[in-house]
From TrEMBL:
Residues 27-247 form the Radical SAM core domain. This is Radical SAM protein. InterPro entries: 4Fe4S-binding_SPASM_dom (IPR023885), Aldolase_TIM (IPR013785), Elp3/MiaA/NifB-like_rSAM (IPR006638), Radical_SAM_PqqE_MftC-like (IPR050377), rSAM (IPR007197), rSAM_sf (IPR058240). The keyword Protein biosynthesis does not apply. The keyword Iron applies. GO terms for molecular function: catalytic activity; iron-sulfur cluster binding; metal ion binding. Keywords: Iron, Iron-sulfur, Metal-binding, S-adenosyl-L-methionine. Gene3D superfamilies: Aldolase class I. Its cofactor is [4Fe-4S] cluster. It holds the Pfam family SPASM.
Length: 340
């Protein structure tokens, strides 16, 4: 049976009882880290949330220091993302080998256009999941979302098919999917997108909302699942986000507990409390040129950021939202809690 991420982070966080215990004692809380190998990118997405304008890129020794630091904190998973496009980093393959040797699982978010056969084999042999962000079912929509030409769209589709074939040849267990960001602009491309992805052999098509967009796609999603799903192909979505769209007036929590369990290390060798606020001084945790990751995690700055973040100013349905709602229950004053 294929391993496909159900994006149920509200349930996943409860599996880490030791990390929750560390949360109360401010030590070794990290579960997953988003690592930006580079800020460089060869796409021109108008709505890009990366930081490719400064062209920062981790050096070989910095990649080594990051992996050593993550291992010391017993971090479980590393997502290679951006920032920029991770597959164009000169240390992409090296980072994968180091992270794997350190005993951490690896995921990759990529636009997929720069993939080649060698990189595809390395990914298929080492990663838990690989997601290509296509975000379109037509060259026209691809141009609007990625700022690229029709031949770039076709190249990415070829790479999807190429990776699916290599995965099959190697009998790889890597969960391989293609992502689509939903909004009023993109909604009519949902079905063409699913057809393209299924035809090229991906394990799944994944839907998630543009940050801050509240378009409800659940009815449409069920129609697509009935029409296209089978034993070899699934349609998945960030269900917890779509379900919370019905009421985004109050999050149900005031503190970002999730920042202790999920962090970001950017391509300029700095650590941030949130992927949505890379380069925001308010969310800056520390500079790895000056402190080790463990020193940052045990220092006073992380608690200062935790106390100062105003969650009302954060994007709705952010990555930490679902497990913030779950973790907030740990601090509730529940009457007669002894009577289960």
């Amino acid at each position: 049976m294929k391993k496909i991420n159900n994006f149920n982070s509200d349930e996943k966080i409860l599996r880490y009882t030791n990390k929750i215990d560390y949360f109360f004692n401010s030590h070794k809380t990290l579960v997953v880290t988003e690592l930006d190998l580079t800020n460089k990118c060869n796409h021109r997405c108008p709505g890009c949330c990366g930081h490719n304008e400064n062209n920062a890129e981790l050096e070989k020794e910095q990649v080594e220091a990051v992996v050593e630091g993550l291992k010391s904190l017993d971090n479980k998973g590393v997502i290679l993302s951006g920032g920029g496009e991770p597959t164009i980093s000169p240390y992409f393959e090296y980072a994968i080998s180091l992270i794997k040797k350190a005993g951490m699982n690896i995921g990759l978010n990529s636009h997929g256009m720069s993939l080649d056969e060698n990189k595809a084999r390395i990914i298929a042999e080492n990663l838990e999941y690989f997601r290509i962000s296509l975000d379109a079912g037509s060259p026209e929509m691809y141009g609007k979302i990625h700022g690229m030409k029709p031949h770039h769209f076709e190249k990415t589709l070829e790479n999807i098919a190429m990776f699916a074939q290599i995965k099959k040849e190697l009998n790889s267990k890597t969960s391989f999917g293609v992502g689509f960001l939903t909004s009023k602009l993109t909604q009519d491309d949902m079905e063409p997108f699913v057809k393209l992805v299924k035809e090229r052999g991906a394990d799944f098509a994944q839907f998630r909302p543009f940050t801050g967009d509240t378009l409800d796609i659940l009815p449409r999603l069920e129609e697509l699942k009935k029409k296209y799903e089978d034993d070899d192909f699934k349609i998945v979505a960030s269900y917890q986000k779509y379900k919370e769209m019905f009421d985004v007036s109050y999050r149900g929590y005031d503190k970002c507990h999730g920042m202790f369990f999920s962090t970001v290390i950017s391509a300029d060798f700095k650590v941030w409390a949130c992927l949505h606020f890379r380069q925001s001084e308010k969310h800056f945790l520390g500079d790895l040129r000056e402190q080790s990751l463990e020193e940052i995690w045990k220092g006073s700055r992380i608690r200062e950021v935790y106390e100062s973040i105003n969650c009302a100013e954060c994007p709705i349905l952010c990555r930490n939202d679902s497990f913030n709602r779950t973790l907030n229950k740990l601090s509730l004053d529940v009457i007669n809690s002894e009577f289960l």
